[in-house]
Specification:
Layout (H helix, E strand, L loop, with lengths): L2 H10 L3 H8 L3 H4 L3 H28 L20 H8 L2 H4 L3 E5 L6 H14 L4 E5 H13 L3 H10 L2 E5 L8 H14 L4 E6 L13 H11 L3 E5 L6 H19 L1
């Protein structure tokens, strides 16, 4: 008798999953004790909200690739240490406000690994934002033109894991260098930054026209970073293409 008003009240409190479970309850459900029914309803509601939050965080992160740490290829010809990945997968480095620097030649899997770390962080409840550095610098310039530079930089500062992909595609201007320094300065010992690119971090000095700015950026990033250098005899894009072709051929053979 009380179900209908109770269901409406649950909906009014935004407890939609609990309301649905109560509305669709059957004889087997009613045989459970009150504590068991309540426990199941709370668990389902909690899980639904958690999944919705992860979905929102993944959408907001704008990750460049749909990548997962569980799908990393640890083939013998790849210089990627599984223990290091497992350590970083705990996200303890984020609690310690440490960084990650990933380098490797084209096709070595840098962006995939960066996005996999981002995906993992989102699923553990952290805010993440992915940028390719060329696109980020354009957004910063646009923010300056629209007089919202300060608010934009504060947004970056608030992200728990900021992923900056494709560093070193070109040398940076003095203004761009200062913007990159501002980002690294605002996040130093406050939040984690992941930077990836083809150029090894030891050569980053070549990217910045002012040695003082270069030193400042390096000091705020490198000395408290996990350094991951990737290498592979085969491009990972080539490997993935081969796997896709093989899968298609196997499916055809079975049909």
């Amino acid at each position: 008798m009380l179900n209908n008003p109770t269901i409406e009240k649950l909906k009014d409190m935004k407890l939609k999953v609990m309301a649905q479970m109560l509305d669709e309850s059957d004889a087997a459900w009613r045989e459970l004790s009150f504590e068991e029914r309540l426990g199941l309803m709370v668990e389902k509601e909690w899980m639904s909200r958690k999944n919705a939050r992860i979905k929102r965080q993944l959408y907001s992160a704008s990750l460049g690739l749909n990548a997962c740490l569980e799908d990393i290829d640890y083939a013998a010809d790849r210089t990627i240490d599984k223990k290091t990945i497992q350590t970083l997968a705990t996200c303890a480095f984020m609690e310690q406000k440490l960084n990650i620097v990933i380098s490797g030649k084209t096709g070595s899997g840098k962006s995939y690994l960066a996005c996999a770390f981002g995906n993992n962080a989102c699923r553990k409840g952290y805010t993440v934002k992915y940028y390719r550095i060329p696109e980020l610098l354009l957004e910063i310039q646009e923010a300056k033109n629209e007089h919202r530079y300060t608010s934009f930089m504060k947004q970056l500062q608030g992200v728990k894991l900021l992923i900056l992909d494709d560093i070193g595609l070109k040398a940076y201007t003095l203004e761009e260098s200062r913007d990159i320094l501002e980002i690294t300065e605002s996040r130093y010992n406050k939040a984690s930054t992941l930077i990836s690119g083809q150029m090894a971090h030891s050569k980053w000095y070549e990217l910045f026209p002012d040695p003082t700015t270069a030193d400042a950026i390096m000091d705020r990033i490198i000395h408290n970073s996990y350094i991951i250098s990737l290498d592979s005899k085969k491009s990972m894009r080539e490997v993935m293409a081969e796997k896709t072709i093989k899968s298609i051929e196997n499916n055809k053979a079975l049909s």
